[in-house]
Structure formats: structure tokens, C-alpha cells
């Protein structure tokens, strides 16, 4: 019986990288919450942050797969990151006063 060796393609490596990056980023507030540094995240906060980060990563992955010109790729990724920043700020402090703002 031989050893089956498979190689991961670049898009699959990026997907794995996205998942690992989301996990590592969520470890930061988890450790801060456990150390009692003032961060007090609930399970819902981690779920919301995970959905936002994973959704952003996947949106960037889709943009990189579909867009061929590097100028448009940069613009699409910048737009996606800007949307993430605005959503995160709105959820955190209610900058715009929408119904999704934290209270």
C-alpha cells in the first residue's frame, strides 16, 4: 500500500490561511478576556467577530479569484476592508447610530 501524497493548490492554501488567521485574531481578545485586561467579550461577541472576519476573508478570496487585473484587485480588497472597518466600528461604538450598534 503506497502513501498518497496530495499537494494543495494556491487557492486552497489561501483558504486555510484565512481560517488560521481568523483563529489567531480571535485568540487576542480571548486571552485579553481571560487575563482581565478590561476586555469582556461574550460568546456572542466572538461569534460576531468570527463571522465578520471570516466573511471578509472569504470576500477577499472571491475577489482575488474573479478579478484578473491587479489594480482592480487592490481596489476591491480595499473596499472590502473598508466595509469591515465601518461595520466593526458601528457594532463596537455606534458611530452611525444604526439598529445594529452595540448598546
Q: How would you briefly describe this protein structure?
A:
The protein is mainly α and 103 residues long. Helices cover 72% and strands 0% of the residues. Helix 1 packs antiparallel against helix 2 and helix 2 (43-66) packs antiparallel against helix 3 (70-93).
Describe the structure.
It is a single chain. The N and C termini lie far apart (60 Å). Helix content is 72%, strand content 0%. It has helices at residues 10-35, 43-66, 70-93. The mean pLDDT is 88. α1 (10-35) runs antiparallel to α2 and α2 (43-66) packs antiparallel against α3. It is mostly helical and 103 residues long. The chain contains 3 helices and no strands.
Evaluate the radius of gyration. Answer: 17 Å
Residue windows where pLDDT falls under 50 for at least 5 positions: none
Mean pLDDT: 88
Largest sheet: none
Q: Roughly how much helix do the residues carry, as a percent range?
A: over 70%
Q: What is the ordering of alpha helices and beta strands?
A: HHH
**Strand portion:** under 5%
Structural class: mainly alpha
Q: Give the N-to-C terminal Cα separation.
A: 60 Å
Q: How many runs of DSSP E, i.e. beta strands?
A: 0
Number of helices: 3
Indicate the overall shape: flat
List the helices and strands and how they pair.
Elements: H1 10-35, H2 43-66, H3 70-93
Helix pairs in contact: 1-2, 2-3
Keywords:
0% strand, 3 helices, mainly alpha
Amino acid at each position: 500500500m503506497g502513501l498518497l501524497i496530495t499537494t494543495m493548490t494556491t487557492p486552497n492554501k489561501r483558504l486555510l490561511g484565512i481560517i488560521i488567521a481568523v483563529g489567531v485574531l480571535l485568540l487576542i481578545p480571548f486571552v485579553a478576556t481571560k487575563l482581565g485586561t478590561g476586555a469582556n467579550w461574550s460568546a456572542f461577541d466572538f461569534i460576531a467577530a468570527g463571522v465578520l472576519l471570516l466573511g471578509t476573508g472569504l470576500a477577499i478570496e472571491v475577489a482575488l479569484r474573479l478579478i484578473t487585473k491587479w489594480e482592480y484587485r487592490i481596489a476591491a480588497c480595499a473596499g472590502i476592508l473598508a466595509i469591515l472597518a465601518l461595520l466593526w466600528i458601528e457594532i463596537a461604538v455606534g458611530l452611525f447610530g444604526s439598529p445594529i450598534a452595540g448598546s
